[in-house]
């Protein structure tokens, strides 16, 4: 950064400070206008995962808290300035600087200073803006933004710049946390973990459920795979850390810079990591590529985690399976469970399909998918796995907009009826309600988004796929192996 640019930023910060000085206040060693994006909280651990912030919390704030050994000061009585809900306590800053200063980028940009007349500045190098410029005495400054920002840290004492650091992860350890067991989300987001490593030249440790490692560790040997329980040890030696997911409530801008309902499931993560928001297909290393079924076959998956995600046409799967078998295909169902539901809503394995269900290793699922002519499923994890393996995917979904998933020319949706509630920014998904249908629950229009996707529409899509890819199971069955 040029000296002229830094000087301009500092002049801007000085103008703002001068304009606000008439109404400044002092709380917990922090001086500034209570209307400015600064909050003071007592010392101690951050909020536990899932703990909500009090009413009035400023999502755009920077949090300034006393150092762990400082005497806590009371938080503002009106609740304004409380930390947004935290999902991790990263402990004290890891990296030792001069004069007792410590810093890191674990769960935001964090700067700790000892007792004394310090001034801390945080800048966004890419947005070209001063984010924070305030006196701090024996405290920790922590950015509310927990996603990737290319920060610059400046610490002054008696008006003299004594420490500066621009974010640079090259050669450093970076920790990333993925969900433990959500197959589709992890398949969608994993390519950006490696892209971040490549772009920044850093060493990345990534945590997720161990059952999912087998899909990636042979294809991405440069990454360090760690169990979620090792997170505290990783944070203690990491330069930066990032927590990958979609966060509720959806207007949370502490952990995600954009609304996933607008950006789509996959592309929300490149925004979070400061990467180009382009579709990336993950690499999957299938360990057993042996074909175990000689006849041409199609793989289907009909189960999901919420009723709105199902194909709710009463005879949909029955008619589709009958068509596929009449065309010469074996039809294999690879859901984890042959039956799933809640209360009065239960969904069974499609009639006429072969039962390949079970809680089986994902490598076994991948081996079976590898030799299928194509896959038919819902907006769910097995569709993402088939896509990751390069298989043609017919996706049947009415509750999501097509932009929500990966691009496929064989996406089936009926725009003549209610649809795409998942991507409606006026609606927030309720994970606790298996029968969630936000616009028509309890009416005869409930789940019409998929009930009105007819077998004929899906069969026409399958015919189009078979024609375009020149798939003829009867011809293939008659050809010598």
TrEMBL record:
Entries under SUPFAM superfamilies matching the protein: UDP-Glycosyltransferase/glycogen phosphorylase
Highest taxon of source: Bacteria
Alphabetically ordered keywords of this record: Glycosyltransferase, Transferase
Molecular function GO labels: ADP-heptose-lipopolysaccharide heptosyltransferase activity
Pfam family membership, one: Glyco_transf_9
Domain Autotransproter heptosyltransferase TibC/BAHTCr-like N-terminal: 97-159
EC number(s) stated in the UniProt entry for this protein: 2.4.1.-
Key word Glycosyltransferase present: yes
Gene Ontology cellular component terms for the protein in this record: cytosol
GO BP annotations, alphabetical order: lipopolysaccharide core region biosynthetic process
Identification of the protein by name: Putative glycosyltransferase
Organism, as annotated: Burkholderia plantarii
Lineage per the UniProt record: Bacteria, Pseudomonadati, Pseudomonadota, Betaproteobacteria, Burkholderiales
